[in-house]
Design brief:
Blueprint (H helix, E strand, L loop, with lengths): L2 H6 L14 H11 L1 H4 L7 H7 L10 E5 L5 H10 L4 E5 L3 H10 L4 E3 L6 H7 L5 E6 L8 H14 E12 L6 H13 E6 L10 E9 L1
Parallel strand pairs: 1-2, 1-4, 2-3, 4-5
Antiparallel strand pairs: 5-7, 6-7
Helix pairs in contact: 8-9
């Protein structure tokens, strides 16, 4: 088999019981179309999803906003934790992924839009503040200006007692864009706490929990 043959053989992918593509199938399909925009080698593991979504309250009627929902790794965990309570706004710029999310997770309000417009998206839906913002965005791939716009959008829409969570891959820690993102978090939030490394993720990653937006 030639190198060309190896690159063009599609992976063997399982579908859900009703024949619809699962999250992995959708992720790989989009990764093959545009690998640079996906920002990951594989969908986030359940362990990483549990760590990222840990601040989602399991009581009350919270407003949870998900940025860069992707193929739904964090979406599934948010929906599990909410159990039909509150509101879950999932923002995804990729139209194919957004369509998949709407089909797979009807309990989430999926919006196909750039996350920099978050304030307008909340206003259109009568939402004043978010209680938790879960980020699945590949921050280390964004230039400085984009990082600032996204962080401004997130911090300005988070309630005073809210929590912003994001993850970073362990191998990306020394990268200048990753350091710039962590510095940006420290400037926009009074408290930024790193979680434990999730080794059983591809690649290993850890979560950053930011509280009290400045």
């Amino acid at each position: 088999m030639t190198e060309f043959d190896i690159q063009t053989v599609p992976p063997k992918i399982r579908c859900t019981a009703d024949g619809r593509p699962n999250d992995l199938a959708v992720f790989l399909g989009e990764a093959m179309r545009s690998p640079a925009r996906m920002g990951a080698l594989a969908p986030s593991s359940r362990r990483l999803a549990r760590a990222v979504c840990g601040p989602v309250p399991e009581r009350g009627e919270p407003v949870v906003v998900e940025l860069g929902a992707g193929a739904g790794s964090f979406t599934a965990e948010i929906q599990r934790r909410l159990g039909g309570r509150g509101r879950h706004l999932a923002v995804e710029v990729n139209p194919r992924l957004a369509e998949h999310l709407r089909d797979r997770y009807p309990g989430a309000e999926v919006v196909q839009q750039d996350a920099v417009h978050l304030r307008d998206l909340l206003d259109e839906r009568g939402i004043d503040r978010a209680d938790v913002i879960i980020s699945g965005l590949p921050w280390a791939l964004f230039p400085a200006a984009t990082q600032r716009r996204l962080m401004d959008a997130a911090a300005s829409t988070l309630g005073p007692g809210g929590v912003f969570t994001a993850f970073t891959y362990l191998h990306a820690v020394p990268m200048s864009a990753a350091r710039r993102f962590r510095d940006l978090l420290a400037r926009r939030f009074e408290e930024v706490v790193p979680g434990r490394t999730v080794w059983r993720n591809v690649p290993p990653a850890f979560v950053l929990y930011a509280r009290r937006p400045r």
